[in-house]
Amino acid sequence: MANQDLLVYRDKIDAIDEQILALLSSRAACAKAIGHIKQNQTVAMPFYRPEREKAVLERLMDMNPGPLPDKEIRRLFREVMSACLALEMPMDIAYLGPEGTYTQAAVLKQFGHSVNTVPLRTIPDVFKAVQSENAHFGIVPSENSTEGVVTHTLDMLLQSDLRICGEILLRIQHNLLSNAESLSAVKAVYAHEQALAQCRNWLNRYIPHADLRPVSSNGKAAEIAATEANAAAIAGQMASDFYGLSILAAGIEDETNNTTRFLVIGNQQLTPTGDDKTSLVVSANNHPGLLHQLLEPIARYKVNMTRLESRPARQAIWEYVFFIDLEGHEHDEKTASLLAEIKRTASFFKVLGSYPVGTVF
């Protein structure tokens, strides 16, 4: 009886799969048609529309009847949209490499697996690839919830004409990867300095005998651990798969909510979605009350400021620029009025981009 019941449900699944395949083919055909329309326009139209994709995914999650959780619905349709977009315009996405890093994981979360991922050595290299149109977009780390900002990214945003086109919030689970037989056999641990800091307590407790060796990225750490005896790396699941390393210990980060924010950089200006963030950088001649003067309009307009960072301006000693994130889009009426007032006060003012607010999944 049980076997007969299984056959009934398997037959149903086969029939449903046929329907899903037919619908996916219809969706892909629509995507190809949209691609042809865009290619034949006299005025160039963007193929990738993150604000449109955000609206589609949120609509589907609102409609989700279960039993699949929203996280899985988002992941499945992310891949469907990625495959369909590849039919319109295959995209090259530059990112801070090497392969197997969290930055590559951020690329796949944002764009799906149907893009061509291009690992580069440095953050400036990623900016250069997008600026020179050798890549459609770039992904760079911006800040970590426990270890703070990535200063190289802030410096490049200040110098570059590229805009922020999106943010990716990636929950970070650090793993200890190695070909060693046990924790006691590990003699050296390689990782990016931020990863070492994020796992400091665990390392001190479980492998205090190991030598901690900072390297340029966790992907590089995994590459070294794959070839060096009794070495380990701190990295994610992707690095374990890519470099053929075993996971000696999973989830070794000291903070369970450890999250890294990545930025999508490009030349595209996005339309409002109703749930946006605007990033800007401002400065003024140093004088008493400078910061209050720059920030007071934000409080008066009742706009939420989600981030404030200072960096040396490098033009003069003790002069600073301030990186600010605000809720709202630069084309929203209230946000536009606020930005105009800040601009009148500042000696230097630059909007870095308005883009959909990222979600942690």
Automatic annotation (TrEMBL):
It is found in: Cytoplasm. Its EC number is 4.2.1.51, 5.4.99.5. InterPro entries: ACT-like_dom_sf (IPR045865), ACT_dom (IPR002912), Chor_mutase/pphenate_deHydtase (IPR008242), Chorismate_II_sf (IPR036263), CM_dom_sf (IPR036979), CM_II_prokaryot (IPR002701), G/b/e-P-prot_chorismate_mutase (IPR010957), Preph_deHydtase (IPR001086). GO terms for molecular function: chorismate mutase activity; prephenate dehydratase activity. Pathway: Amino-acid biosynthesis; L-phenylalanine biosynthesis; phenylpyruvate from prephenate: step 1/1; Metabolic intermediate biosynthesis; prephenate biosynthesis; prephenate from chorismate: step 1/1. It holds the Pfam family PDT. SMART domains: CM_2. It catalyses: chorismate = prephenate; prephenate + H(+) = 3-phenylpyruvate + CO2 + H2O. Residues 279-356 form the ACT domain. Transmembrane segments: none annotated. One of its GO terms (biological process) is L-phenylalanine biosynthetic process. The record marks 260 as: Essential for prephenate dehydratase activity. Catalyzes the Claisen rearrangement of chorismate to prephenate and the decarboxylation/dehydration of prephenate to phenylpyruvate. This is Bifunctional chorismate mutase/prephenate dehydratase. It comes from Ostreibacterium oceani.
